[in-house]
Model the fold of this input.
Amino acid sequence: GNSVTQMEGPVTLSEEAFLTINCTYTATGYPSLFWYVQYPGEGLQLLLKATKADDKGSNKGFEATYRKETTSFHLEKGSVQVSDSAVYFCALSDYSGGGADGLTFGKGTHLIIQP
Amino acid sequence: DAGVIQSPRHEVTEMGQEVTLRCKPISGHDYLFWYRQTMMRGLELLIYFNNNVPIDDSGMPEDRFSAKMPNASFSTLKIQPSEPRDSAVYFCASSATGLISNEQFFGPGTRLTVL
Done:
């Protein structure tokens, strides 16, 4: 079956520090990969995505590269801000053919940025 | 665009009572997903629909849970009778055929507390 493993937090960093949140996956097919972010009391928002090997998703200074050889999709940001404090979820969708399927999520990583 | 709408945002009920959660997907989306989020198990897919038809309900925990989608703009998730272990945040998400990456758009969630 499909699974996503991501580092568990909380991860505490100082403002302007470099961020890496590791994510690895197992899938039977050729999945699409996502990072979602959840701010306190809110739903999940799509942060970035990648649909094929070597694709780089990017948004709001965050980046992640789809690495098929290492089955990884690590999230990075060069300089974090207090406003980046949230829970980050790595997810995959293992479906092709123009339809949709449920997402498989990692457990989430709670990121805390201190001023 | 109004996004995915869920109601109520918070629900507190007593064990044994019936609970109904509601969701309105984004107009034009033909897929609708129900997820549950708990501290212990993270985000889990419960059931999803395509064109109002349930496609996969293997994630529904037990017979106490049921979901319906009577039309393209409305879905319900019902728990009867509710138990304290059902306490969680329930998310609805929608997606559309043709979105290559199977990007899903999440509602704000319903926080359910069963006493």
DSSP finds no helices and twelve strands in chain A. The mean pLDDT of chain A is 91. Chain A touches chain B at residues 32, 34, 36, 42-46, 49, 51, 89, 93, 95, 98-108 (CB under 8 Å).
